[in-house]
């Protein structure tokens, strides 16, 4: 099991949809969170991408020098850069960080933002372009001399002189709920990412991706992106969830939902459908709360509960085939500690930098029994 945290380069705070309790999105704060995650034993951190965020590559490069074990899941944006440039950036950051780079392929987003970046390709064609991009990018990182003639991209005598530390390339993470997205992921991803949908929906998506990957002669791993609110008691956790949206009014929700519904992302539409902008029906599955998605794009659900309950829900997703969990919480510094201190000891999870397990041999979590075996974290 791999557990990653989140660096909030677009801002952080104690409340959603309000400037009250907001924190400055600056480097000293990012450094605090990254070093806390490193010391607490998280596998790595995700850095967001978009015009409202600091650049993830530059931020990761700076934070890599401030940490020891932490890996950095950084966005690669086909269409916004050439694959040769991306390959050089990948190789450099992987070398400078000592092999601690993970790649998060982001093919889409807001149509308005993409247009502002000069990208006007329709949804499905963006994934066609992404497939061509990753084909060239991978071949360069493998050390090949690349000749490529595609619909969207070309390369003549492409070469990469300095190889990455990880071979053949840093692990590729890829999300996409549309048919075109799943097809591209099946061909190229090492870890397929889904946002935090209810377990039944996640199970269906995993089966769909596995089937498509088998057609490509490949196997892929699976990850999930969730927020988390964990407290010592169930009551305290739900109070914290309500506290988070305490200053959120219906006008702010409606305005945010209008913007989110204008996106052409199938995954985003699935997130919106979970709550439909209704503040009164937010527990969409046991301990799965959709309150964050009322105003936040992307991952909009959180696991809410006491430590044993949160551990049970994580293990439930793990039983479906999920082995990478990317969590976040508001504020991100405090919530990183809550999750690590209260839940990590209850999971079959080897912390980065540790030797040995934190879960006692023979420990029982709900109905799940973990025998006395040695566990190691995978490379991704």
From TrEMBL:
GO molecular function, one term: alkanesulfonate monooxygenase activity
Domain of life: Bacteria
One Pfam family recorded for the sequence: Bac_luciferase
Luciferase-like domain mapped to chain residues: 1-323
Record keywords: Flavoprotein, FMN, Monooxygenase, Oxidoreductase
E.C. code: 1.14.14.5
Alphabetical GO biological process terms: alkanesulfonate catabolic process
The reaction(s) this protein catalyses: an alkanesulfonate + FMNH2 + O2 = an aldehyde + FMN + sulfite + H2O + 2 H(+)
Family in the record: Belongs to the SsuD family.
Function: Catalyzes the desulfonation of aliphatic sulfonates.
Protein name: Alkanesulfonate monooxygenase
């Amino acid at each position: 099991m791999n557990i990653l945290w989140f660096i909030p380069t677009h801002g952080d705070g104690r409340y959603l949809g309000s400037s009250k309790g907001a924190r400055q999105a600056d480097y000293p704060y990012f450094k605090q969170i990254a070093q806390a995650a490193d010391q607490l034993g998280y596998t790595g951190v995700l850095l967001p991408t978009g015009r409202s965020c600091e650049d993830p590559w530059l931020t990761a490069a700076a934070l890599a020098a401030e940490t020891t074990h932490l890996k950095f899941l950084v966005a690669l944006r086909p269409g916004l850069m050439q694959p040769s440039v991306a390959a050089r950036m990948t190789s450099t950051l992987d070398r400078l960080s000592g092999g601690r780079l993970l790649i998060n392929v982001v093919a889409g987003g807001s149509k308005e933002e993409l247009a502002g970046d000069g990208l006007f390709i329709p949804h499905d064609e963006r994934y066609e372009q992404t497939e061509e991009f990753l084909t060239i990018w991978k071949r360069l990182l493998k050390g090949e001399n690349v000749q490529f003639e595609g619909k969207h991209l070309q390369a003549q005598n492409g070469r990469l002189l300095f190889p990455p530390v990880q071979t053949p390339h840093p692990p590729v993470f890829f999300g996409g709920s549309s048919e075109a997205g799943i097809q591209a992921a099946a061909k190229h991803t090492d870890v397929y990412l889904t946002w935090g949908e209810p377990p039944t929906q996640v199970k269906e998506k995993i089966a769909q991706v596995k089937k498509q990957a088998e057609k490509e002669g490949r196997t892929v791993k699976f990850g999930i992106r969730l927020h988390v609110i964990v407290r010592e008691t169930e009551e305290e956790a739900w109070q914290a969830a309500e506290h988070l949206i305490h200053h959120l009014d219906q006008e702010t929700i409606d305005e945010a939902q209008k913007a989110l519904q204008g996106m052409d992302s199938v995954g985003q539409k699935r997130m919106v459908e979970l709550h439909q902008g209704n503040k009164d029906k937010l527990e969409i599955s046991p301990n799965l709360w959709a309150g964050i998605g009322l105003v936040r794009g992307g991952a909009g659900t959180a696991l809410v509960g006491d430590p044993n309950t949160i551990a049970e829900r994580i293990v439930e997703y793990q039983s479906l085939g999920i082995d990478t969990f990317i969590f976040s919480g508001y504020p991100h510094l405090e919530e990183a500690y809550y999750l690590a201190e209260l839940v990590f000891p209850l999971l079959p999870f080897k912390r980065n930098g540790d030797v040995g397990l934190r879960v006692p041999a023979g420990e029982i979590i709900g109905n799940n029994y973990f025998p006395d075996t040695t566990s190691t974290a995978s490379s991704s």
